[in-house]
Amino acid sequence: MVEEDRLQLLRDILLIDDREVAHAINQRIEKISETLEKQEKLSEKVNPIIEDRLKVFVSEIPTSLGPVITQTLKDEIENSKERVVEALYPIMGKMIKRYIQNEIKLLSETMNKKVNDTFSVNSFKRKLRAKFTGVKESDLLLTELDAPTISEVFIIQKGSGILLGNHSNTATVDKDMISGMLTAIKSFVEDAFEGGTQNLEAIEYELYTIHIQNFHTYYIAVVISGSYSRSFENKLENKLLKLSKSLSPQISILTKEAIDDILKTHF
Amino acid sequence: MSLSKKIVMLGHFGVGKTSLVRRFVDSVFSEDYLVTLGVHVKKKEVEIDGEKITLILWDIEGNTSISKARASYLAGSHGFLYVFDVTRPETFQNLAEEMDFLKENYSKIPVAVVGNKSDLITSEHVEDFFKQEPFKDCEFTSAKEGDNVENVFLKITKQLR
């Protein structure tokens, strides 16, 4: 053997294992590169892992994120109530409207049934009225159920707002203060809208209406509950005009107690 | 039988009209300043020489001048309480003109002039500064301490009868 051949033989003996290992590593790297570069192959490997993690994440949401979300929502509602109300108002409004419409319909149907089943003098009268006026009998019954009633009457001095007399069927807060504030509101409205000689004639709030009738030195405020109809308003106006005839000539000399007694006879 | 009389509180913003009314009617005072919008009506019954009088107090919003106040709020008044702040000159420097306006437009209605927040100045200052015209007949009160408040309201009530 020449010296060169001997050296080659020695090289082969010493390096043969390393070459095989290097070759195997090269093959593995090529396979991994291929997997990473081709989406389908990568998906095959990664998708099951992600799915498993997602399942765990979803199952843990109520315990891990629940309290945080709840607290965030609470804070948001607390800090921007007006925005929440603005957002909810149209939805709530529609729901309430629909509910009320439904309730009224049910009430009307119930009443119709009741009317048909009843043979009293009143129902006979109502039937006649309905026939002659063209108004539904159920509507007439509804009006009867929600008939306007006078809760309070105030005789108030114009300008000063001092209570000259009153008649009340219910116990309310301080009547002197009511007449003062009523006069202040009246003055403000009459001034603010530059009505000239025009007067505030009614205030409505929820289930009540305050009818205001103006006279020279005083005005009469009547608090009415129930359905305040045009016909009731006419009747009330006539009643107040009648009252003013007996009141106006002597209002400046009458005591509060005397005016209270006069009101008692009229209401 | 009780007589009712309307007293209107006049004066600039923040002089203590509401505080005086609250001190007189409810015997309370608060450091919190809430500006009066429109009018706030309060009532207190007092007794003068055995006669019961119901005072209807109209605490109206502050104005730099009475002429700017809503005339309808002043209508039918039996007395005025003009309040200024002793620590703020802008609230009393036009006092003479304000009194002239009242004399001209509401000549028959008694007026009491009140320098409020007297707890914030010394009695010497009151003596020196406020003894001259137009402060000669002024009363000095402290709604915070309650000093002289009742006396001011009773004094004007006596003039209403």
From TrEMBL, chain A:
Domain of life: Bacteria
Protein name: Cell envelope biogenesis protein OmpA
UniProtKB/TrEMBL annotation, chain B:
GO molecular-function term, one example from the UniProt record: GTPase activity
InterPro entries referenced in this protein's UniProt entry, alphabetically: P-loop_NTPase, Small_GTP-bd, Small_GTPase
Pfam family, one: Ras
Record's keyword terms, sorted: Nucleotide-binding
Keyword Nucleotide-binding tagged: yes
Stored SMART domains: RAB, RAS, RHO
PANTHER family: PTHR47978
Protein name: Small GTP-binding protein domain-containing protein
Organism this protein belongs to: Ulvibacter litoralis
